[in-house]
Amino acid sequence: MSLETKVGAALFEVIDPELGINIMDLGLVYDIQADEDKNVTITMTLTTPGCPLHDSITSGAKYQIMQHVEDVGEVKIDLVWEPAWTPNKMSERAREMLLY
């Protein structure tokens, strides 16, 4: 299993506190890259640019990776606003969770 796949699996444990759904199913993570030194860069967004839970979500992502993925170097979160997040980026599972 690639390092990027392991990191992605760990990010399923990072829950958006407002919605109660993980950031992967919400479609907030756009890309995961690892370099030859096992440093990881996560390109992600938030549901809104002024999201008050910015620090909580990005810190949670770093924590989950460092705690649950072996041999990771540095973890960098690259927060982007383009393309803008829309509910269309959510997985079917996330949509179902919001309905209940």
What does this structure look like?
The protein has a single domain (3-99), classed as Fe-S cluster assembly (FSCA) (GMP Synthetase, Chain A, domain 3), CATH 3.30.300. The model has no long low-confidence stretch (mean pLDDT 93). Strands 3-4-5 form a 3-stranded mixed beta sheet, with helices on one face. A two-stranded antiparallel sheet has the order 1-2. The protein has helices at 3-11, 54-68, 92-99; strands at residues 15-16, 21-22, 29-34, 40-44, 75-79. It is α+β, with helices and mostly antiparallel strands and 100 residues long.
Feature tags:
20% strand; 32% helix; GMP Synthetase, Chain A, domain 3; alpha+beta; 100 residues; two-stranded antiparallel sheet; three-stranded mixed β-sheet; globular; single chain
CATH superfamily: Fe-S cluster assembly (FSCA)
CATH topology, which one?
GMP Synthetase, Chain A, domain 3
Our measurement of the CA-to-CA distance between the termini, rounded to an integer number of angstroms, reads 34 Å
Q: Summarize the helix and strand pattern as letters.
A: HEEEEHEH
CATH architecture: 2-Layer Sandwich
- Helix content bin: 25-40%
Q: What is the topology, as strand order, of the major beta sheet?
A: 3-4-5
Flag low-confidence runs.
none
| Main β-sheet description | 3 strands, mixed
CATH class: Alpha Beta
DSSP helix count?
Answer: 3
Q: Rg to the nearest angstrom?
A: 13 Å
What fraction strand?
15-25%
Count of structural domains = 1
**Overall average residue pLDDT:** 93
Structural class: alpha+beta
Number of strands: 5
Query: What is the general shape?
Result: globular
